[in-house]
Specification:
heterotrimer, A mainly alpha, B alpha+beta, C alpha/beta, B: alpha+beta, Elongation Factor Tu (Ef-tu), domain 3, 2 domains, 6-stranded antiparallel beta barrel, 5-stranded mixed sheet, 14 helices, 17 strands, globular, C: alpha/beta, two-stranded antiparallel sheet
Chain lengths: ~300, ~500, ~375
């Protein structure tokens, strides 16, 4: 709605805001999403006009939005697991420009992944970055990264020194959900078998603890180490919330020894298959399986009853 | 439930307005109760969102947590709430009454008044319980320090919610339950849980019937829920954008964004605030039951004791010790019996329940021998006979002790029950010490009387072992409870 | 047993059958005596759409705060290869250190099709039964026959295998405080878990193994402890819920007797005849329906319009000795209606109650 020449009074705007709020909720309750969206837009405009009328400036302050990385779950992050039914439309995610002069996101992810040394989820990547590297790395911004990288690789293969790519599932060599790796790693390291989630966790624990030993302690680092120590037998030796990196490394190594052999064998076998079956893009970004649907569907039908 | 209340509900359906279940008010109502309408964040155990509270209908205090996931803001909220609530508690003591010294000669006092909290519904109590549980162990020094008032508030809230479980206590009341004790509506118990719908049935606005008012109350857009959970539509469409804007704002814009969060929460709270005071007015319209002051005295005792010992006591334990738990259960059973009986003696409409069940009977006195004596023993005793004609289904065996509903001191025994509904009662006490009854004690022919087998003084308190003698079946004597660092450092995230 | 699916398809009309999940299947166990609900559920009718069409939509929405909280907690427990979950299972159930295998069945590669996912779930369950391989199976896609029609269960659980025996682990974000959680929420979680246990048992039986031995009746609820985000596990015996569920599902397959008595042309298509069609199948409304059935507001209005005592609650109806109508009950109470023999006692009770109320309210003892 374009603003009318005779600007409405704050009281009129308040009445209008109340009216529009009701309209939005009525529309949502009736399942009419389209109407709800339209009213919602008008509502935001009216709220903006109220701010302007009452407070006399248009901007909502300096919208600094770099800090959605931790604590606050970003809407897109949980979208994968969202229940299929009613899901209220999240408020439009605030889009802030990357602060100028900083390292681009993919470079920052690369730094964090190099430090971790194993396939990792956006959340861990963000925490590691926050603990050891300058600035922030919002986890929410990592979700579309892999797709961008794949597009870039397919249009100009190996044009970049490295790509941020997928971990491959050991059985189907398909992209594993929610894990990022670096293209320059050995293929074995980028495979994810049944035990790999655990061995990668332990590997990351060791590498991060080693890194922490070489640096001054900080609350962020302690918090990060605690996440590992609390979930590795024998790693939490001191008071709750405090971690001695050496003890964490020893405990993680001890458990890693239990799984490493089997995990390595499964990964090697899968990597061999990947080398034999997949082209370059497939090896980096995973096999596409949509064609399999019908095939598996039939076997399913046969042994069904 | 009983046929009597069910019938009242049917009458409410037929007449389109709630029907009385009581002729007197069975609860104490403070001159200035502290009305509290709390809201919490959906999906969280004890994340306060807002509370509207106060003792003056015209000037409520509104406390808000602009970002309910922020731990520091939660504790700031708890500190603000403590300021208002503790001030109210301290100002509710009245005078100090000196009581006769106790058995061991110790001094005993009682405050002449006590605080009273009113919340809309049971959810409100549950929320205060959680808020109490999450704040009473907090430390006021060290790494997770909170304001000193926060754990104090936690202990008081825990005490209030404990007393809420005590039958007949009026220190913390829910408005829906209190109204339901006095009125029957033409809707189900589930629907009565909606305060606006309940009040709509009892006191429909001009031009509306009870059901019409209740229907209006069920629309969350017309009538916001009384909490502590907010309407999901409000959460998604109004609150979430306001909180997000607050998160995003910096500088002066942040104050403005906070103001908006306050404003939208106020729209959800103000209607319930009004309703609470309307309901208080409805209850005030009923005369107070005769035994209400007596029960309030027990509440004042409890308040006095808790207030007096506050300084030297620890926060209440997470769980009761076995002996304490058994004693508490026993106390509650006794309180329930006493409360049920007192209400019946206070209120003929409640006594009617017992007449329906045959534990009481009422009717006209058709015959009377006020000076009859039993001369079988060494000394003659005054034993007047009274014949009562009743249409009630008497289910009392001959020999049962009964008393007069109007004056429970007058006791007697059922002698025989005639086939035509005539009951012969032999009076045994409450008529004075002479061989002729005090005037006005023995009913006369033509009087209407009710006798019942209910008694006011139920069984006495049982004895429980000291904590040191907890039987091994109950784990033996428990270790003394002292709050630990873990208690204090517990996350509230 | 006759296959009722064709009749039921006709009842549903042109709409596609609604998808079930554990919540909707668990809801089937409420109010088993209601024919309307039984028929509509068996036919897979979208009751929400029907109720909206009739002007009685139920705003059953969920707050995004609650949804976010649930998703965040689940993500946290499952993060880093289920690190927190493994710690819990190790501490509480003595899970051995080597048992850490994790299989995500939420998608097969980039394929999220249900048939493919179900086939893979089946394969891995079979392998686990035969070789003991695998420990945590996330998002297993199970199937359960509802009124002769297979329904896929959108899974939000982890199946966990130890020593050849499966356990269901359900992650819920309601808090367990000092060892206690809200009873309603635990009960709802137990009902949903029972659906998964049943579906997993059916699958195990199909694969030729003993379902009772291979799938535990004890499920693990993983919830935040006290006011923290720290997870804690509580074992819950779901045998009672399982028994109710099995009985109710068996009953659903027998709705054909009800369907057989319905007029030929009846359909729940969203058209002008919808209301009449819905009314043709008898409902048994009770206030509890409000929390579990999308048709509740419609049925309540219907019950109130015809003055049904059941609308006031089951206990009221019981107090009235089963008299269904408000009008009849009041007429009996006022003595203007001569009771039939079977109602004589109820009528006397009502007349007495009416007299006692009158006396008490008139201030006459």
């Amino acid at each position: 709605m374009p603003s009318s020449p005779g600007a409405p009074s704050p009281e009129e705007l308040e009445a209008r805001i109340a009216e529009l709020r009701t309209a939005v909720r009525r529309a949502m309750a009736a399942g009419d999403r389209q109407a709800a969206r339209a009213h919602r837009a008008e509502l935001r405009a009216a709220e903006g006009a109220w701010d302007e009328a009452v407070l006399g400036d248009t901007a909502l302050g300096d919208t600094a939005l770099g800090d959605t990385a931790l604590g606050e779950p970003a809407p897109d992050e949980t979208a994968d697991d969202a229940p299929s039914g009613e899901r209220p439309a999240p408020p439009p995610p605030p889009r802030a420009a990357v602060p100028r002069g900083l390292v681009p996101v993919r470079e920052r992810v690369h730094q964090a992944l190099t430090l971790i040394g194993a396939p990792a989820a956006p959340k861990l990547i963000a925490s590691v970055y926050a603990a050891f590297l300058p600035g922030q790395l919002p986890a929410a911004r990592l979700t579309s990264l892999r797709r961008d990288e794949e597009r870039s690789f397919r249009s100009a293969p190996y044009a970049r020194p490295y790509y941020l790519c997928a971990a491959l599932t050991a059985d189907l060599l398909a992209p594993a959900r929610g894990l990022l790796t670096v293209s320059t790693w050995p293929l074995e390291q980028r495979i994810s078998g049944p035990l790999s989630a655990r061995t990668d966790f332990l590997t990351a624990a060791i590498r991060i603890a080693e890194h922490a030993e070489r640096r001054p302690d900080s609350p962020d680092v302690q918090r990060l180490l605690w996440r590992f120590a609390a979930n590795i037998p024998g790693a939490a030796t001191g008071a709750v919330g405090t971690v001695e990196p050496g003890a964490l490394i020893a405990a993680a190594r001890a458990e890693l020894d239990v799984h490493a052999e089997t995990d390595r064998r499964q990964r090697r076998r899968a990597a061999d298959r990947a080398r034999a079956q997949l082209d370059d893009a497939g090896r980096l970004f995973g096999a596409r399986l949509r064609a399999m649907r019908s095939a598996t569907g039939t076997t399913d039908g046969e042994d069904d009853r | 439930m009983s046929t009597l209340t069910s019938l009242a509900q049917l009458q409410a359906v037929a007449s389109g307005v709630a029907q009385p279940l009581a002729t007197v008010r069975h609860c104490h109502l403070a001159e200035a109760p502290l009305v509290m309408v709390p809201l919490k964040l959906a999906g969280e155990a004890a994340a306060p969102l807002a509370v509207m509270l106060g003792s003056d209908p015209g000037s409520p205090t509104l406390l808000v947590v602009p970002q309910p996931r922020n731990r520091d803001q939660r504790f700031a909220f708890a500190a603000d709430l403590a300021r208002v609530a503790l001030k109210y508690i301290e100002s509710s003591r009245g005078q100090v009454e000196e009581l006769p010294p106790g058995k061991e000669g110790e001094e005993r006092i009682r405050y002449s008044d006590a605080p009273q909290l009113l919340v809309p519904n049971r959810g409100g109590v549950a929320f205060l319980r959680m808020l109490g549980r999450s704040t009473r162990f907090r430390r006021t020094d060290g790494p997770y320090a909170v304001e000193p008032s926060v754990p104090v508030l936690g202990r008081w809230l825990t005490w209030f919610t404990d007393r809420y479980d005590h039958p007949g206590s009026c220190l913390l009341l829910t408005m829906t339950e209190t109204l339901r004790l006095h009125w029957a509506t033409g809707q189900s118990a589930l629907e009565d849980g909606n305060l606006a719908a309940l009040v709509g049935w009892i006191d429909p606005p001009e031009g509306l019937t009870g059901p019409q008012a209740a229907a209006l109350a069920e629309d969350p857009l017309a009538t916001p829920p009384a909490g502590p959970t907010t309407d999901p539509g409000f959460d998604n469409e109004v609150l979430a954008p306001a909180v997000a804007a607050y998160d995003a704002a910096r500088g002066p814009a942040r104050d403005r964004a906070e103001e908006r969060v306050r404003a939208v929460l106020e729209t959800q709270l103000a209607p319930t605030w009004e309703l609470m005071w309307r309901a208080v007015g409805l209850l005030r319209g009923l005369p107070e039951g005769a035994s209400v002051p007596q029960r309030w005295e027990r509440d004042r005792d409890s308040f006095t004791y808790f207030h007096q010992t506050f300084g030297e006591a620890y926060p209440q334990a997470r769980r009761d010790s076995p002996v304490r738990a058994a004693k508490r259960l026993h106390d509650m059973e006794r309180a329930q019996d006493a409360y049920d009986a007192q209400r019946a003696f206070d209120d003929p409409l409640v006594m009617a329940e017992h007449r329906l069940n045959g534990l009481a009977f009422g009717g006209e006195v058709t015959g009377c021998d006020p000076t009859r004596k039993d001369e079988s023993g060494k000394r003659p005793k005054l034993r007047p006979h009274v014949w009562v004609r009743t249409g009630d289904p008497v289910r009392l065996d001959p020999g049962t002790t009964v008393c007069s509903a109007a004056n429970p001191k007058i006791k007697g025994t059922v002698v025989e029950i005639g086939p035509d509904g005539a009951v012969l009662v032999e009076l045994t006490g409450g008529m004075g010490r002479k061989l002729t009854p005090e005037p006005g004690t023995v009913p006369q022919v033509g009087d209407r009387v009710v006798f019942t087998s209910l008694t006011l003084g139920s069984f006495g308190p049982s004895r429980f072992p000291d904590k040191e003698n907890t039987p091994w079946t109950h784990g033996g004597p428990p270790a003394d409870y002292e709050p630990t660092d873990d208690d204090a450092a517990e996350d509230w995230s | 047993m006759s296959m009722t699916a064709p009749d039921l398809d006709r009842l549903r009309g042109v709409a596609a059958p609604r998808n079930h999940d554990a919540r909707t299947i668990a809801a089937l166990t409420a109010n088993p005596g209601c024919a309307r609900r039984g028929v509509m559920d068996a036919a897979g009718v979208d009751k929400d759409a029907v109720a909206r069409h009739l002007g009685f939509g139920v705003p059953f929405g969920q707050s995004q705060f609650a949804i976010t909280r649930g998703n965040t907690f689940e993500a946290q427990v499952k993060a880093d290869g289920c690190a927190e979950l493994l710690t819990l299972l190790r501490d509480r159930l003595g899970l051995e250190v080597p048992e850490v295998a994790y299989d995500d069945l939420g998608a097969v590669g980039d394929n999220e099709g249900r048939e493919v996912r179900h086939a893979r779930t089946r394969k891995l369950v079979q392998r686990a039964l035969e070789t003991g391989e695998g420990t945590l199976f996330d998002h297993p896609l199970l199937r359960l026959d509802i009124a002769g029609r297979p329904a896929y269960l959108e899974p939000d659980v982890i199946a966990f295998q130890l020593g050849g025996r499966f356990h269901i682990v359900e992650i819920k974000s309601f808090a367990v405080i000092d060892g206690q959680a809200e009873a309603d929420q635990v009960a709802a979680a137990a009902r949903q878990s029972a659906v998964y246990v049943l579906a997993l048992r059916r699958l195990v039986a199909e694969l030729g193994h003993d379902p009772v031995e291979k799938v535990a009746h004890e499920v693990f609820l993983v919830c935040p402890e006290n006011f923290s985000n720290r997870p804690t596990a509580t074992p819950v015996d779901i045998r009672p819920q399982l028994a109710v569920l099995e009985r109710q599902l068996a009953r659903l397959t027998r709705v054909d007797t009800i369907v057989a008595q319905l007029p030929e042309e009846i359909t729940f298509d969203l058209g002008e005849a919808l209301e009449e069609a819905v009314r043709t199948v008898e409902a048994r409304y009770a206030p509890e329906c409000m929390s579990s059935c999308e048709m509740a507001f419609f049925c309540r209005a219907e019950a109130r319009a015809c003055g049904a005592t059941g609308a006031l609650g089951r206990s009221v109806r019981d107090d009235l000795g089963g008299v269904d109508s408000v009008e009849t009950a009041l007429a009996l109470a006022e003595g203007v209606l001569e009771p039939s023999e079977d109602l004589a006692e109820t009528a006397e009770q009502l007349r007495l109650a009416a007299r006692l109320r009158r006396e008490a309210l008139a201030g006459v003892a």
